[in-house]
Amino acid sequence: MDMTPKEYQAYVKARAPKSPVARDTLLAFVTGGAICALGQAILACFLRLGLDKTDAGTATSVSLVALSALLTGLGLYARLARFAGAGTLVPITGFANAVVSPALDFKSEGLITGAAVKMFTVAGPVIAFGTAASVLYGAALMLLGEG
Question: Are 46 and 60 in contact (CB under 8 A)?
């Protein structure tokens, strides 16, 4: 079968399953919203326990990361992601999942050369960029006399 690239694209488009965009969008919206609502509920609990707003926010972030890591370790986060799609990419829980998943996948290669190294495959560039950006932002504030 000899096809031009254009004919091949038309062939693939005709045979590819149609993506349920509306369903996927709705699931992502609802799931992402549910994760954020859970974060708000956790924040409200910490505020009720007497933490100030800053400490409650920090405790909420830590709780969401720990919960996400636990769900990833139990294999439940991947099941949720298969169902809900992009809704599970809410930054804090998605980032925790992105750190824990490779560590679990490569734990058989050893603690250092497997889990510890692979854990930062995704997280490493994010951490490096975040650190560099914060240094530049801090330097700019200092130069402007606001820091």
Answer: yes
Q: Which two tokens stand for residue 25?
A: 């969008």
Give 37: exposed, middle or buried? Use CB within 10 Å, 0-12, 13-18, 19+: exposed
Phi-psi group of 79: left, alpha or beta (phi > 0 → left; psi -120 to 50 → alpha; rest → beta): alpha
pLDDT in tens, 1-19: 688 989 899 888 888 888 8
* Dist. CA 91–CA 78, nearest whole Å: 16
Tokens of 78: 């991947």
Domains of the chain by residue range? 19-143
What does the block give as tokens for 30? 């609802």
Q: Which DSSP helix (H) or strand (E) runs through 27?
A: helix 21-48
Under DSSP, is residue 107 helix (H, G, I), strand (E, B) or coil? Answer: helix
Neighbours of 115 (CB within 10 A): 18
Confirm if 81 and 35 have CB atoms less than 8 A apart: no
Could you report the per-residue pLDDT of 65-122, keeping only the tens digit for each? 999 999 998 999 999 999 888 888 887 888 888 878 777 766 666 666 666 666 677 7
Q: How close are the terminal C-alpha atoms of the chain, in Å? A: 67
